[in-house]
Specification:
It is built from 3 helices and 5 strands; from the N terminus they run βααββαββ. It is of the alpha+beta class. A hairpin with a 4-residue loop joins strand 2 (44-46) and strand 3. Helix 1 packs across helix 3 (63-81).
Length: 102
């Protein structure tokens, strides 16, 4: 298995409150582990135009699986925070880091 740092971009179509942002960060927090902490990566970056990016770590056999898992984690966290698919549109994920023993 390889640990991938995946960035999932998106847009909040109706904005996001401070309390919703805190809740989303709490739900995603379990995926913010040593690699991203050591590199100083923010788990959630929210821009002034309501676009955002989530950077999280996923253990997977390959890049494709890691990207699918990351989008699934982000989508679930958004839904559990109260956002519908139309409230938070997700873009294409990208691998932004890899940690492997190879």
């Amino acid at each position: 298995m390889t640990t991938f740092v995946i960035t999932v971009p998106g847009t909040f179509t109706s904005g996001i409150s401070d309390s919703s942002r805190a809740e989303l960060e709490r739900r995603l927090g379990a995926l913010h582990t040593d690699i991203s902490r050591e590199q100083g990566l923010d788990l959630l970056t929210l821009n002034d135009d309501d676009t955002f990016s989530v950077r999280l770590e996923v253990d997977a056999a390959d890049r494709y699986e890691a990207e699918l898992d990351a989008v699934g984690f982000v989508a679930t966290a958004l839904q559990e925070t109260g956002f519908s698919d139309q409230d938070a549109l997700l873009g294409n994920p990208a691998v932004t880091g890899i940690d492997s023993d190879l």
